[in-house]
Amino acid sequence: MSDTQQNDLARKDGKDSEADHGTDHGTGAAPAGVSRRRLLGTASAVGAAGLAVGAAGGAAASAAGRHEPASVTALTTVGTDTVAFHGAHQPGITTPLQARGHLVAFDLAPGAGRKEASALLRRWSASARALMAGEPAAGHDTGVALDAGPSSLTVTFGFGRTFFDRTGLTGRRPSALDPLPPFSSDHLDARRSDGDLWIQVGANDALVAFHALRTLQKDAGAAARVRWQMNGFNRTPGATAHPMTARNLMGQLDGTANPKPSEPDFDRRLFVPPTPTAGPAADSTASEDTAWMAGGSYAVVRRIRMLLDSWEQLSLHHQEQVIGRRKADGAPLTGGTEGTALGLDTVGPDGKLVIPGNAHARISAPEANGGAAMLRRPFSFHDGIGPDGTPDAGLLFVCWQADPLKGFVPVQRKLDRGDALSAYIRHEASGLFAVPGGAREGEYVGQRLLEA
Ligand SMILES: C=CC1=C(C)c2cc3[nH]c(cc4nc(cc5[nH]c(cc1n2)c(C)c5CCC(=O)O)C(CCC(=O)O)=C4C)c(C)c3C=C
Ligand SMILES: [Fe+2]
């Protein structure tokens, strides 16, 4: 069994034990040694108000002069959930979607090179490890995340194409980092695209996520400057009656047909193999000296604005024709439930395909793209109202794959040519980042690139 599968199973065990105790957060293991039943027992002694206030409310109650028992503050497992920093792969790739996300790109400062980059990655990894374990950041903790647990915090680091020239490592740049091809529907803003370094922060608490982001920005010191930052969100764990696929801001279930860890080719699709596999591709990879990417993955990041004013004018029927799935439950228009395969050849009584030829789900399906697949792990964004008076909202589309030329690129090429959804979205920014494998104990992320 792969590390990914083990990780997922470990989290699933957590969920199951949580379910046994009657919670529905679906976010991971309960705090060690504290059963849900015991907490409920404690809470019932202080009344229903104690149940509702949770951690933040507990602090407020103390400030108001009421001294609640400390155990009341531990009613939820959302705060106590942790994700491992060390492992074969970096966290934040197969981790379940978190409620809050920050994507931030940095450029190395003028004059900063490999030495400074290596010291920076060492500092960043130390902070990420500590914060993900629920410890304060070394030296300069701001206290913003005080009272909260790690809340499934993940920090993921990547290198952009330009990083390699700036650090004298051009010879070790993977060809997979070659620029993405232009697409006819691109409206890309160069200032909000690319970057030498990229960080993805995710957490199930907004203050925990902000605290991590701020810590990492301060860690950058004089070595690197923020190039762009994007802030996103997803549904809060526990907001729905049962764990389910996330909805995006168009209201669709988004993520249904993602590759699953239980599928035999999951790791192969997502992660760079330790050694080049046999065959023609192996020769070119071997000559690249990219062994440092073993266990890593490539992240394609796109800020995709949704033209919500136009989208929301469509009838439900038309919206469903655009995607090829039912809006309420994500089932294919050919019937069944969310998990049912798309009936791509099914024809209706009118002789037409039930899932239209230009439906987004049809065009992006691996069956229609020579098996090309990626793991989509997005955040929604809403940055207010744009100068044109429409919502500046949409999807921070992040997808993961072992090779962008076998994942994002062929699918986006196809979508670019005839996706019914493209009339309602606009790609505004883009980045491609090499995300190295996870750091082993005592190692920092990227050490195998920077110190070999
Ligand atoms: C190039 C890759 C993709 C981009 C860009 C993209 C943008 C995008 N997608 C949605 C909404 C949905 N996408 C869905 C499925 C789906 N999308 C992609 C790829 C891209 N999407 C793939 C590979 C798939 C899976 C296709 C399949 O195998 O069936 C769906 C259906 C539900 C699901 O499977 O997730 C929705 C809904 C939006 C709103 C969007 C840009 C804003
Ligand atoms: Fe999609």
Descriptive overview:
There is one protein chain. Residues 1-71 and 278-286 have low confidence and may be disordered. The chain contains 13 helices and 9 strands. The longest helix is centred in the first third of the chain and has 19 residues, at 114-132. It has 3 domains: 3-74, no CATH class; 100-173 and 190-238 and 268-295 and 438-450; 304-431, no CATH class. It is of the alpha+beta class. A hairpin with a 5-residue loop joins strand 7 and strand 8. Helices cover 29% and strands 16% of the residues. It has helices at 3-20, 36-46, 48-63, 114-132, 161-166, 206-220, 266-270, 280-286, 308-311, 316-323, 360-364, 408-418, 447-450; strands spanning 100-108, 154-159, 197-203, 224-233, 297-306, 375-376, 379-385, 391-401, 425-435. Helix 2 crosses helix 3. Strands 5, 6, 7, 8 and 9 form a 5-stranded antiparallel β-sheet that branches. It binds the ligand C=CC1=C(C)c2cc3[nH]c(cc4nc(cc5[nH]c(cc1n2)c(C)c5CCC(=O)O)C(CCC(=O)O)=C4C)c(C)c3C=C and fe (ii) ion. Fe (ii) ion (FE2) binds next to helix 11. Fe (ii) ion is lined by residues 360, 364.
Structure summary:
With 452 residues, this protein is an alpha+beta fold. It has 13 helices and nine strands. It has three domains: 3-74, no CATH class; 100-173 and 190-238 and 268-295 and 438-450; 304-431, no CATH class.
